[in-house]
Write a structure and sequence with these properties.
The protein is an all-beta fold and 210 residues long. It is built from no helices and 14 strands. It folds into two domains: 95 residues, no CATH class; 83 residues, no CATH class.
Length: 210
């Protein structure tokens, strides 16, 4: 059955060696005046700009050795002037109107596995296992403000042996999910695959395993 495109960002799936994961959950700084929006499942990095150095930011590329990704956004907490207290949210709406720094929770473990849907620009099947892939950064800010879930997807047309691409395809859902489940059709576009971070701030870049 042909896949239906309904992207959900990068969703935790397990850990490479099979242990019980913490996913490298790390508390990082988030600037309250940041105009970017961040949804659970979005890709983030650490800003190197002098005025906001050390705060998470929206990656400009995530595909070069000098611009590695830091991890996957997994919610935040910030002081909300509207309710006069600190709130927890699965997404950051941007510019929350407070001078206080915010806390962002980011999954940084390079051995963490994620399921993620591919865009409809190319078919990604089992032959892509072991290759690297980029993500469709244009979808980074279009998540769901009700659920806080990302709308990010892999950029299917970038699957290649390029070692600087940010993610490694390690499996496809067609190898473990029941037939007929959305994303398991590896013969049509929009497949859901299992990936781990490749161009990560916590690991050295590597080429494909094939």
């Amino acid at each position: 059955m042909a896949n239906t495109f309904s992207a959900f960002g990068f969703r935790s799936f397990g850990r490479q060696e099979g242990g019980s994961p913490t996913a490298g959950m790390t508390k990082l700084n988030l600037l309250s005046s940041d105009t970017n929006t961040y949804f659970t499942g979005d890709v983030v990095t650490i800003s190197s700009e002098s005025l906001v150095a050390g705060y998470i930011t929206d990656p400009s590329s995530g595909t070069t050795t000098g611009s590695p990704i830091w991890g996957i956004f997994n919610g935040c907490e910030y002081y909300s002037p509207d309710v006069a207290r600190v709130v927890w949210s699965p997404y950051f709406p941007g510019s929350v109107g407070s001078s206080s720094p915010c806390n962002a929770y980011v999954l940084t473990d390079p051995e963490q596995l994620f399921t993620v849907q591919c865009t409809t620009t190319a078919v990604v099947g089992t032959s892509a296992i072991g290759l690297n892939v980029g993500y469709a950064s244009s979808l980074q800010t279009s998540g769901n403000t009700t659920t806080g879930i990302s709308a990010l997807a892999l950029n299917s047309s970038t699957v290649s042996a390029n070692s600087s691409l940010p993610f490694r395809i390690v499996d496809t859902t067609s190898n473990f999910a029941p037939p007929g489940v959305n994303g398991t059709d590896g013969s049509t576009t929009g497949a859901i695959v299992v990936v781990q971070m490749n161009n990560s701030a916590r690991r050295s870049l590597t080429g494909p395993s094939t």
